[in-house]
Design a protein that fits this description.
By secondary structure, this protein is mostly helical. It has 12 helices and 9 strands. It has 2 domains: about 160 residues, no CATH class; about 120 residues, no CATH class. It starts with 6 loop residues before the first helix and ends in a 10-residue tail after the last helix.
């Protein structure tokens, strides 16, 4: 049976794919296993503004605060944040342009512009006209591009939270990433179908309910789909692990961030676990490796651990 595909549909898919390819290999700063999602977060913020029908060029002084908030919440922990760097350097990837009537002064000893001048001169940055026009005509491409960036730089548990903070609507995405379920099955079985932190375990018929397999060292930054890089986590502790509210010490004791707080339910779910050993899996090789624990503490965990001594 021959299936007829309209030329207009083929052309639409081809243009969407072309847009996705332009953003696939962003020149993201790297040093070893450190993560630097500054450019992807800026693009996601710009996509959210595009969905809201904002102007093509976004003044730096208007997006400085929301971009800084994204970096603080979803970037690696840092002493200070510099939204001016992705705003300026994304130009080198060919998917962003800066327009200003004034020559920008570089900081002493670097090529980076002064943040104060970006604010003062209301320097605008945005997608080039050709990309902007195509994205405005193809809302499905905006959603797919957002999904592509999220999948490349963040674990799935954070996608909806980042999209919401960036003002993005991801509903109606055409294509989804297919994932191998072998890692999830192996990790959950190794932890006896119970959360490694709190011991929660529940099933609906034969299916685990609200139980995930979390990567400790994110696969987006070199983490392997190996059993010693995974933890069975209930949905609450999975989110907390990926957001940096909890982590592990070298001897696999539970660390709870001193910056984490909440209502009375936080005490039994988190604070009472502080300093306790992680539960023991039924397979020795499933114990988290020292390297993956170290990566998580350096790249994801936020603030200092609560004193549990």
């Amino acid at each position: 049976m021959t299936v007829f595909i309209p030329d207009t549909l083929v052309a639409s898919v081809t243009k969407t794919d072309a847009i996705l390819r332009q953003f696939k290999d962003l020149n993201v700063w790297r040093r070893g296993e450190e993560r630097a999602p500054h450019k992807p977060l800026l693009v996601l913020l710009a996509l959210g503004r595009l969905q809201a029908a904002s102007e093509r060029l976004l003044p730096f002084d208007e997006i400085e605060a929301p971009l800084t908030a994204l970096l603080e919440e979803f970037g690696p922990p840092r002493r200070s944040y510099h939204p001016e760097l992705p705003f300026y350097h994304l130009q080198t990837d060919g998917v962003w342009e800066i327009q200003t009537d004034f020559p920008l002064t570089a900081r002493k000893g670097s090529k980076n512009p002064l943040r104060s001048e970006l604010r003062e001169f209301k320097v605008g940055g945005g997608f080039p006209e050709a990309i902007y026009s195509e994205l405005r005509k193809r809302p499905e491409a905006v959603r797919e591009l957002a999904r592509q960036l999220l999948a490349a730089h963040f674990p799935e548990s954070l996608h909806e939270g980042i999209a919401g903070a960036a003002g993005l609507d991801l509903s109606g995405t055409v294509r989804n990433v297919r994932r191998d379920g072998a890692f999830r099955s192996a990790v959950i079985e190794a932890w006896d179908h119970r959360c490694a932190f709190c011991g929660f375990g529940a099933m609906l018929d034969r299916a685990d309910l609200a139980l995930d397999a979390a990567h400790i060292h994110w696969c987006q930054f070199g983490g392997a789909d190996s059993i010693n890089n995974g933890l069975a986590c209930c949905s609450i502790h999975h989110q907390a692990l990926d957001r940096g509210a909890i982590s592990l010490s070298d001897d696999r004791r539970i660390l709870v961030s001193s910056r984490f707080h909440g209502n009375e339910q936080v005490e039994p779910l988190f604070h009472a676990l502080s300093g306790r050993p992680l539960r023991t899996p039924n397979r020795k090789e499933a114990l988290p490796g020292e390297h993956v624990i170290d990566w998580h503490r350096r790249q994801v965990f936020r603030g200092e651990a609560r004193d549990f001594r």
